Amino acid sequence: MYMQAHTHRDTETPQVPPRIFYINLDKSTDRRAHMEMALLGFPGHVERVPAVSASEVNRPPFFNYMRVNGLDSHLRSKTKAVQAKTASCWLSHVLLWERLQSELEPQDTAFIMEDDVQFPENWTQALPETMRDAPDGWDALKVCGWGYYRQADVVDDNWAVPRWPFYENGRMLYAGSCGYIVSGSGLPRLLKRVLGQEIKDIDVAMMLPEEGTVATTGLAIYEQRPGRRLLWTGGFGSTIREWGEQYSDYDPFTTDTDKSGCSMNMGRVCRDESTDETLTGEGTARISIHSWNQCKLLCEEDPGCAAFEFKTSESRCEFHTSPTTKAVLIRKLPSDDADLDFTCCVKDCLSQHRLL
């Protein structure tokens, strides 16, 4: 049974956001080039928004937010570098919201992105359908991210309400702030929600409380379910954490982990197709997609998937159903990851694998 959206779905032609704002650090010129190239075909306004850097968070005018809101208790337990980078990301989003609050009319919309967004082909053609399918009366729509959803949060086949906790039953839920659409009328409610908390990871701050609903909190925020997201993330490394560093609000991993975030005995397996024939012939190509992370999620949701391979050269997700697959998936990490064509992961490891 699905949760009820707080108003009826609008049947009129949806308004596609005419403006895109992407957040980008001055030093991240490779990411800027990626975004400029990817957004060349967007018919509306595209604007780069300089991100707040970690070195600026304790300077005016940014320090006022640090003083008033303070840092989340779990974030305070992290390194100074993670604290500053998390706060700088939080500030970059919040300051843009405050600016747009004065620029957007209530009926206006804007598309906000981070600079590691991955764009599937024809995403601009899919955008109107995303808007048409959105629950009526929305304030914010998360259309890019990673992680899973909670069945109790489901609104319909496409959308769920992102609620705390962020980590549950060995899985991360509703992670990422790489792409979302805001309405002019909803920005005050989004700001009230986030500014009413201590500074933490911005995606966690945007979520509703564990017992909260759209009706009780007044913030109508929805997130596309895995496999239905308009955009994906994972094209670049994290600008906040190094490998092995956890999200600020929990520390879910209790076993030794390698660079992939998987436990050492059930680790990530990379192989060069030309030298490792172990799994050849055991897979069945199911779907052609553009995201390794989406392939991972689809395997996790399919009870018949024992393991998966994502072939980057073909953007092909291949599931493995053989019960012996797990036994032969040993750790094999060649020195030059750039030459790898396949990335494999055991299904039992998927709930631990994270893209920070």
TrEMBL record:
Apple domain residues: 270-345
Gene3D superfamilies: Hepatocyte Growth Factor
PROSITE patterns: PAN (PS50948)
Alphabetized InterPro entries for the sequence: Glyco_trans_25 (IPR002654), Pan_app (IPR003609)
Protein name: Apple domain-containing protein
